[in-house]
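To: structure desk
From: M.T.
Subject: fold request, one chain
Message: Could you run this one when you get a chance? Sequence is below, nothing fancy, just the single chain.
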Amino acid sequence: MKKLGFYLCVLAAGMFTVACSDSENNESGGSSDNPKVLSEEYYAGGQLGTVFNESADAYQAAAPAVENAGMVYDFFKGERIFERDANTNKDGAFKGLGPVYVRRGCLYCHPAYGHGKRQARYKESDMGNGYLLVIYDKQTNAYIRSVAGMPQTGAVAPFKPSINEDMINIEWKDYTDEWGNQFPDGEKYELIYPELTIPLEAFYSPVMVTRGGQDVEITDVNELGFRLESTIGIYGTGMTDAIPDDSITAQWEKESKYFNSIGKTDALNPAYWDQANNKWISYYTNKLSPGKQWVRRYTYAMTRGPILDAAGANAIWNITNVTRSDRRYHYLDLNGTYYATTASKDPEVQAEFYNYFPEWNKTGDVEKDIYNYLTSKELPAEMSDEDYRALMVWHRGLAVPAARNLDDPDVQEGKKLFSKIGCTACHRPSWTTGPDEIQDPNGMFSNNDMPRYPNQKIWPYTDFVQHRLFMKNDIRTGWCRTTPLWARGLSKICTGAEDRLHDCRARNTIEAIMWHGSAQSDARRSVEEFRKLSKSERENVVKFINAI
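Reply: Done. C-alpha cells follow.
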C-alpha cells in the first residue's frame, strides 16, 4: 500500500506540472500581446496556488506549493481523511463517529470539494446537502441554547439526534421583485427562496433561549427563526489565509471611510467594527493562545480567524464529533448540558448505554455515567495529531483552478462592465499575500508543518467585508461576508449544479445578481446599472464571472 501511495503521489505531482506546461503553450490562453505568455490574472491563486485544470476534478488538485514543500504524501493522506466517512469503530481508521453528529463525512456538504447544492428536503445522508440549520430566537437574533450552533440530526444508537430530520420541512417559494422579474428589454428571470419550518416536537431536548441573562424555555414555535446556510467551496483557502491581517484591516478602513463620507453610518457590522472611529471592536481569539487576537476572515458570519482554527479545522471535530488532542470533548449544544441531561434520563438510552461504551467508568448509576460521558472534557483523542496535521496540509494545500478565456472579447467586455457598474466595490479582484508566517490559534503547527504562499498576487474577488442584501428570508442578522467568486464558473462540471448565495436560492448567475437588488441592499446601485445593460452585455458580464 505504501508503494502504491507513493506512485500515486508522483503521478499526481507530474499531472499538475504537465497541466501548467500545456497551458503556458496554449495560444488561446495567452495575452493579446504575446499569446504564449499568460497574463497574471490567469493565475487565480498565484504561481504557488494555481493549477490549470477545468475538468470535473478541478477543485481537488494540490497546489504547486504542496510539491515545493515536499508534502504531496501528506496532502493525499489528508484527502483520504476528507473523503472517507467517520465510523463507530473503537480502533482503526476513521474511528470516533458520534454520539451525535451533523454528517458522517465531509463530502456530503462539499460535493467535489465545492459549494453545497440546493435541496428540497433535509437529510444528513444526502450527498451534496451542504445545509446547516440555523435556529435562533427572533427576539434577540441569537442562536437557541439547547442545540449546537450546527444542529445535529444524526446519532449513533442508543443516542438520539438533537432534531428529528423527518420533521424538517423545506419549501421553495416563488419571489417577484419590484421589477416584476423582468429586464427593460423584456427578458424574464425567476427567483425562488426557501421557507424552513421545524415543529417543537422535532427537538429532543426542551428548546431554550437566553433572554436577560436567563435561559427561558420556548413553548411557541413562532418565537423561533429558521434559516438555511450552505457550505462554500474549500479550494484556495490556503491562499486567502496568507493575506496579512493588516491588509484586511486596511480594506475595512477604506470602506468605513467611504461610507462615513456619504453619511451611511450603519454600513459595517457594529458587532465587529466601530465605523465612527474606523477600527475593530471584536477580534477572533482562542483560549489556547491567551492574549493573542486575529482579524476575522472566514464564514458568512466572520466567526473565524486563521484557517488552522477556522471552519475546516472546526468541522472535522464538530461535524462528526470525532475528538482530537486539543478537543477532548463532545460538541452537543450551546449550553453544554441540555442534551446530556435529556439523554441521561432517557430509558432507551440507559438500557443500551454500556453496550455502546462498555469501557466507560461505571459508577453503578447509569444516569450519572451517561451525563458524565457526554459532558467529559477528558475523552480519549480519536483522531491522532498526525492525521489532523495531514488533513490541514490538504486543506491549506488545495489549489485554485486557473481563470479561463480571459482574452475572449466577450469576457473582456464583461470584465469592463463588471467594474463599471460597481461590482468590484465588494468583489475586490486581487490581493497580495504577505510572508505567510503560519498562524495557529491552537498552537499545534508552525511554518514547517504547512504549505505556504508568500508574496503571491491572488484573485479571489472578495473584500473580506460583511455587507447586507436585505433579501426575503435573509441570512440570520442580515450580515454576510462577500463570498469569493474564483472558480465558481466550474461548479456545474465539478458538482453538477451552479447554485449560488448562502442558501443556494440562486440557480444561476443572473438570479444571484438580481437577489442583490433590494431597495435597501448595499449592491442596489450595481443592480440598477446591470438592468440598464443590453441582453448581450448582461450575458458578457455572466461570461466574465464564469471565466474567473
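Reply (cont.): The chain has 15 helices and 16 strands. Let me know if you need anything else for the meeting.
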